[in-house]
Amino acid sequence: MNIRAANPVVEEFDSSKFRDVLGQFATGVTVITTLGDEGAPVGLAANSFASVSLDPPLILWSLALKAPSLGAFRSHPSFAINIMCEQSKELALNFSRSSDEKFAGISWQPGLDGVPVLADASAVLECTVENRIAAGDHEIYIGHVRRLKATDKFPLLFHKGQFSRIGDSL
Fold first, then answer.
1. 51: domain range?
2. pTM for the whole thing?
3. Considering only CA atoms, which of 95, 97, 118 is closest in space to residue 108?
4. What CATH number corresponds to the domain at position 35?
């Protein structure tokens, strides 16, 4: 189903303004992991994560088409969503940078299909790829959650281009 307005009014804006407006939406921080060539661990920091369905249990996240890890995520049948805790800011920064050594000194264990599960995550969802959808300059991954675990650690947040923590409840 494709629904569009008959005569949409389109505002002119550039990608930096769009990014600034998106920054108003506070998100959690994840490190998404899989296996690459010859079983090497691959991972990246992302905040483009959301739930899709409870039955069946589905989630989604998106990956830039120019990401160096795109080939690994396209070729491996599984991935893990490692939800970062507020103590894991440096770990999240490590996975946000381009490097072949992201897993050096990082504590992890193999999960579903060998995919890395990070020891310092506040929660982990281990998924198989249900679908991939092309969307602009990204590819959307829909994952079927096969295993999960959670701790009582507080999540790391990202808001207006900065890491944050949960404050007082309203």
1. 28-160
2. 0.89
3. 118
4. 2.30.110.10
